[in-house]
Amino acid sequence: MSSVLRSPSPRSAPSRGARSRAADAVARARLAVVPRVRRRAPRVPFVSLVSILLLAGVVGLLLFNTSLQQASFTATQLEDQADRLSARQQALAMELDALRDPQQLARSACSIGMVVGPTAAFLDLDTGAVSGEPQAAVAGPCGIAPRRPTYEPPTAAAAATRPEQVPVDTPQLTTDTRAQEQNGNGSGNANRTGDSTRGNAQQSDGAATANRGGGRR
Amino acid sequence: MGRVSRRRPTRGAAQFRLRVGFIVIAMVLSVFAARLVQLQGIDPRQYAQMAAKEGAVSVVLPAERGDILDRNGEALADSIDGLMVVADPSLTREDAPELATLLSKRLDLDYFTTLERLRKTDSRFQYVARQIPAAEATAAVEAAQEKGFTGLYTRDDPVRVYPDRDVAANLVGFLGTPDDDGSARPLAGLEDSFDTYLAGHDGEARYQTASGNRIPLGDATVDAARDGQDLVTTIDSDLQWRVQRWLQQTVQGAGGDSGYAVVMDTRTGEVLALADDPTYDASEPEAYPETLYTSRALSDVYEPGSVGKVLTAAGLIDAGKVTARTRFEVPGRLYRQDRPISDYFEHGTIRLTLAGIIAKSSNIGTVMANDLYGNGQQRRYLRSFGIGQKTGVGVAGESRGILPSKDAWTSQSADRIAFGQSYSVNALQMAAAVNTIANGGVRIDPSVVKGSATLDDGTVVGSDVATSHRVVSEDAARQTARMMERVVDPEAGVAPAAQVPGYRVAGKTGTAQRVGAECGCYDGTYTVSFAGFAPADDPRFTVYVVVQNPRNGGGGGSVAGPAFSKIMSYTLGRYGVAPTGTEPSRLAVEW
């Protein structure tokens, strides 16, 4: 649209002095419509800004989503790996536990010739006094009974043949042998062995023997 | 005018369009409404479920069962992740032989059983193997998948391992194959009595997945699992193992039926070892008869025999009736109301002090001393020693023992009770009673749980809550200990084999007649035992060894004595207890 209103034309100005001045003044005093200045705001930057924002948003969201999804894949994979590793760790710990089984340890110790230490002595660091009766370890069978494979109740016959099979701890034998010697030599005092033989045992608690068959319970 | 005439048709057209539009909107909305009514009104739950099901996954987060540990933190029972391998026979049927070969080789299964399962018709779910450590199971299934076999899956199936196998097996117990819902099935021991404490609570996670991966930002709720608590026992697994082996040697050597051994810390009442023989291997319990699963040291009752004499003597001294030096003229045979009482050794009238009666284990002497008790005193002392009451250590199936009631307490039964017959105990009960004397006359509750833990029935047990009470005076306990020292003296006593080189040892033998299961009477078999503590003048450990029905003719001193000596010697050395270096008791036994 072009402007419709214009300022009065200079042609119409009177040529004479005062009149023309008056006319000029009138002409000046008259209000005239000035043309509206219309500057178009350029649309391109705004549109591009909005488009860029939109596009960036969409792409960003997409990327964000993708990376989240990617992270989720990685998480799943890492979880699997963690599971596998913890399973492996447990398998190894189990192996270690099995090796730490006292029976296993004792057998290994035995196989390299170790024996159970007999009584030790104690050294008091303050006084320098030694207490206890130290004994030297004696090399020999370490006397570790194997685990009973399964259980079968002993019968009288089996028990009779058993004494040869008794595994004993060599270093600990001293007290036993002493006791046995005394059993053998103690002619003057048969009482001494006390409860330790069956003959005695059978007479032991005689009152109770008399109670046999009493059906107390 | 012209303007008006021009506008009228426009307004009419707009209204017409509005109406049409409104009708269309109303129709669409009523379709929505109808659908809404259908969805929400008719069967909302089904649709809600269908919506939730779509991609939603609910996973049980299994709580890890607590370990059972020994006092040093070594595992007696340990939980590890395990898997079960299951097959869908409709998919495995065709490749069954190859698959069975692979699985039986890798998982150590029986080929034919596996083959049969893989070929099963009319089934889409078959167990192939259960409780396989996760690493093995995953490897086997992956190997099968690599070769192109389908239809094998794994599922959670926790494994319980008992790395020390038979060590403390009777105490710890074991878990059987889990129920179908995956819950543990405790079958014996602490596993059973502390099941709730050990088990914890399973949790649950719900989230949405797409092709196996979790949808980020999807709905997710996690109810975390609460793992079970570890149960710390007072057992020392190395000592326990050694005690078990020595006990086994002792029982086998004597041709006995069974045996028990207890090692107790005198001052705290903590049980360092509680051995049963024969025992079983907790890692393969099915190879042993079920009768071996219980802790017979707690469930079996038997008459303690002469070990009970020390309780009688301690009570009498505390009551002020006698001292260790009180003199008795002991006849060869004592005629009582219903039957004569004799000693295990033939003798005429001998002059023994109370110390001599204990040292030589004279029944007649004990009965004569016991006559000095006032009415009801004997029973009160025994009750106070813990006889006839459960120790309450927290193992299911513990027996109470049998102490005759006040009404059944005749003078005849009082005589026999004086020397340890006519009442029954379990091994731990008796060990705790003897420990009372070691602990200066104060009975402390024995405990197998270190700290405290809650039983399934809600009772809290453990060393933290163990109570103690005075039974006899310190002086009475000390005098009794000095008398018990004479038992292992080679000259004065009956059990020199129970000595521990370098240490002062107090102990007492027991050779008791056994009540047979069949006749309910004394059947001519014996229970032999030895109970004692060391160092005698400052006791640290109480050890009690019992062998049922030895067939080699041995008694308490010769069968249980050497085992006591080995166990005590090892325990003292292991815990670095130095000999006290004082002079042993020289109490006169005769006068």
Total number of strands of chain A: 2
Largest interface: A-B, 92 and 114 residues
Number of strands of chain B: 28
* Overall mean confidence score, pLDDT of chain A: 67
- Quick one: overall form of chain B? elongated
- What is the 3D shape of chain A? rod-shaped
Strand content of chain B: 15-25%
Derived structural class of chain A:
mainly alpha
Distance between the termini of chain B: 155 Å
Query: What is the CATH topology descriptor of the domain at 237-574 in chain B?
Result: Beta-lactamase
Radius of gyration of chain A: 58 Å
Supply the key terms.
heterodimer; A: 217 residues; mainly alpha; two-stranded antiparallel ribbon; 7 helices; rod-shaped; disordered N terminus; disordered C terminus; B: 591 residues; alpha+beta; Alpha-Beta Plaits; Beta-lactamase; five-stranded antiparallel β-sheet; four-stranded antiparallel β-sheet; 28 strands; elongated
Care to describe what's here?
The complex is a heterodimer of chains A (217) and B (591). Chain A is mostly helical and 217 residues long. Chain A has a domain at 66-106. Chain A is built from 7 helices and 2 strands; from the N terminus they run H-H-H-E-E-H-H-H-H. Chain A has helices spanning 17-29, 43-100, 102-111, 156-160, 173-185, 198-203, 206-210, and strands spanning 122-123, 130-131. Chain A has a two-stranded antiparallel sheet with strand order 1-2. In chain A, a hairpin with a 6-residue loop joins strand 1 and strand 2. The longest helix of chain A is centred in the N-terminal third of the chain and has 58 residues, at 43-100. Chain B is an alpha+beta fold and 591 residues long. Among the domains of chain B are: 82-118 and 126-156, Alpha-Beta Plaits (2-Layer Sandwich), CATH 3.30.70.2110; 237-574, DD-peptidase/beta-lactamase superfamily (Beta-lactamase). Helices cover 35% and strands 22% of the residues of chain B. Chain B is built from 19 helices and 28 strands. In chain B, the strands form 10 sheets. Chain B has a 5-stranded antiparallel beta sheet, sandwiched between helices. In chain B, strands 1, 11, 12 and 13 form a 4-stranded antiparallel beta sheet that branches. In chain B, strand 27 (522-534) and strand 28 form a beta hairpin. Chain B is elongated, with a radius of gyration of 37 Å. Residues 1-5 of chain B have low confidence and may be disordered. The interface between A and B is large, with 92 and 114 residues.
